[in-house]
Amino acid sequence: MTEHTFATLASRWYERNARDLPWRKPGVGAWAILVSEVMLQQTPVVRVLPAWEAWLDRWPTPAALAGDTPAEAIRMWGRLGYPRRAVRLRDCAVAIVERHGGEVPDRLDQLLALPGVGTYTARAVAAFAYGQRHPVVDTNVRRVVCRAVAGEPDAGPATRPADLAATEELLPAEPAAAALASAAFMELGAVVCTARAPRCAVCPVESVCAWRASGQAAPAGPTRRPQRYAGTDRQVRGLLLAVLREATGPVPHQRLDQVWQDDVQRARALAGLVTDGLVEPVGEESFRLVGDGPPVPLPQP
Ligand code: SF4
């Protein structure tokens, strides 16, 4: 297989079959794409769609979000899960205003230096917002490349420099074509070459897939046990946050005590929210979402 063949097949398929997602539409800006990439981490598309629309309605620019409080970011995040992402996204917006005049930077090193923007997100923004040539490697892409190129059933859990190098080798030289191929690889992993049930019979790269060429059956991905939620600290944190999100001021300890009977677990969950920078104590007896109060003025971009 030539690298060119792989990217061409995937890109042609993507142009005809890509899901119609709003952050992929022409003219969507870098900020909207950055928000989508942060929300999509560990969260299904169907849950992100309404949250992304609402977020951008309220904060269409980094400056708009930077001018609001972290508490409001947590409120808007609602029940998307992993709410530290909301605070990090606001930290990111503040940094964009302070360092880049309110414009999402297009240089990879500057993107990587933003709070909460990691290896994957920085490259995704550079490729999808600015049409640059970078390997964009998430779990799905790692799996597709591992199967199709290396002929192995599944990649390991973490993105390694070798994953970036292996994916970069598949990208066309021309930046726009490379960005298109990156989007195609991601889509392929999300909807065709899935972890548990790859649909090889309808896969656009089947003819060049090393795994298929090896004559082995479609790989059965690892069986993921559903994560237990009921009774976990995550559930208690969610209940505490729900009360604090609804409140318009500090919430007395006694009110929070009502959300969960187990004193030790409740205290541990609350302490975790404070440690994670989502909640802060007010005096001796009350708590509130972090920074809940009048926003602090920021320097003008
Ligand atoms: S042929 Fe099957 S294993 Fe190979 S990339 Fe396509 S879906 Fe994945």
UniProtKB/TrEMBL annotation:
KW Cell membrane (keyword) present: no
Known cofactor(s): [4Fe-4S] cluster
Reactions it catalyzes: Hydrolyzes free adenine bases from 7,8-dihydro-8-oxoguanine:adenine mismatched double-stranded DNA, leaving an apurinic site
Enzyme class: hydrolase
Catalytic activity, EC: 3.2.2.31
Domain named HhH-GPD: residues: 39-191
Keyword annotations from UniProtKB, A to Z: 4Fe-4S, DNA damage, DNA repair, Glycosidase, Hydrolase, Iron, Iron-sulfur, Metal-binding
Similarity comment: family membership: Belongs to the Nth/MutY family.
Name of the protein this chain belongs to: Adenine DNA glycosylase
